[in-house]
Design a protein that fits this description.
It contains six helices and four strands, in the order H-H-H-E-E-H-H-E-H-E. By secondary structure, the protein is mainly α. The protein starts with 10 loop residues before the first helix and ends in a 10-residue tail after the last strand.
């Protein structure tokens, strides 16, 4: 098993089974740790600077604690803080992302997704660099400014690298 490295460009190094298990354990151990939860809220609170609002990003462990927390007052505070962050960065508007599907090869069996490996009724496709370029230009020409890049998970036909 590869060593966990959150900065690695190799999927098997930044997606690490032991780290996931340790993070889930950490979340369960700290889901009622109000001092820690409050410090995470403080870290995530948007602050006005000369360049607009800034926020410190949360680590995956910090996010896991908040997701595991079931203290009603803290959950309500999370909703309030999420609203503050949204308003600080996007204002009172809805931001849309256009999906750009790079590949529909997938080894998973997620029932909600049409790309799942058991779906034998679709042609599998992986875009070339030229096709990606053309799609981005077409989306840009349609007025899109933000893209959500989508792809199935397949280490052979569609490696994350």
């Amino acid at each position: 098993m590869a060593k966990y490295d959150k900065y690695s460009m190799k999927a098997e190094e930044f997606i690490n089974h032991e780290e996931i298990l340790e993070t889930l354990k950490y979340a369960q151990e700290n889901k009622h740790n109000e001092a820690l939860i409050d410090s995470i809220f403080e870290k995530a609170t948007p602050r006005l600077s000369g360049k607009g609002y800034t926020c410190a990003g949360l680590s995956h462990r910090e996010a896991s604690v908040l997701l595991a927390c079931d203290i009603p007052e803290k959950v309500e505070k999370m909703y309030e803080l999420a609203k503050q962050i949204k308003l600080a960065f996007y204002g009172n508007r809805i931001v849309m992302f256009a999906p750009l599907y790079l590949s529909n090869y997938c080894v998973n069996g997620c029932v909600y997704c049409p790309y799942h490996m058991k779906n034998k009724h679709i042609a599998r496709k992986k875009l070339t660099q030229e096709e990606i370029r053309n799609e981005v230009i077409a989306l840009q020409d349609m007025g899109h400014k933000r893209l959500a890049i989508e792809a199935g998970e397949d280490p052979v036909n569609n490696p994350i690298e």
